[in-house]
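Reviewers of the previous submission asked for a worked example of the structure-prediction workflow described in the proposal, so we include one complete record here. The input consisted solely of the amino acid sequence. No template or homolog information was supplied to the procedure at any stage.
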Amino acid sequence: MNNKWIIVKLGGAAITNKNKDFSFNGIVVDRVMEEIKNSNSKVILVHGAGSYAHNIAKHYRLTDKTVTPNALSISLIRTSLETLHKQILDSANDFELPVFSLPISSILSYHQNDYSFYINSLKAVMNKNMIPVLYGDVITHDKIDFQVISGDFIIQLLCDVLGPSSISNIIFGTNVDGVFNKDPIHLDAKLIDTININEFDTILDQVGGSTSTDVTGGMRGKLTEINKIVKKGISVSIVNILKPNRLYRYLIGDDVIQTLIYSS
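From that input alone, the workflow returned the following structure tokens.
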């Protein structure tokens, strides 16, 4: 029996409508929870913020390190994030998944030039075979007061503290089939099935930047974060969770449409 865990990232573009503030895609989230339940997999869930945070963060320039965020902006964005988080937990509960919320703002801080990750709570939840649920959030920072932490960065931290001995692979659940050789709005765009870390820079040059509302960098920013993860020795698959049963089939070991990013 495989005792390793799979990290499943629920991307903000899939679980919300990024073009409409505070728009929860409950149909997709419910289906994802059902697929996880049916797969009987050991997963750690990390979800993005989507339309529940990106516009707020952009309006208050929370990702601009030259701007000191005010208390109201931090309160607004955290309240919004918690609203999204609760809806995801409620969906998991509906399918009787034993989820345990771990807000990153409560277990991570930046102090004296380093991140302090309180991992005891995470490991205790995993030891009970519950499903840890973490999400993009805002943490305290002793130099700039507060810092926006993306779900992608949280996955990097999880890889650091757990490592390949505990994590088998990572799924980035998105609203697209994977990485394309050009913007997939073009009819002749082709899916790139696999990316070796050695050819990463060439692929990155073909990928566009962020959308107008995405403060975490869009697909290009995502790939940059994924590159850091794969270098830690853990492969990453980009999977379209808008497609029914695609996540389920991946979790049970079937071949699915995806982009696999791996190290040699």
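The chain has one domain: 5-262. We consider this example representative of the routine output the project will generate in years two and three.
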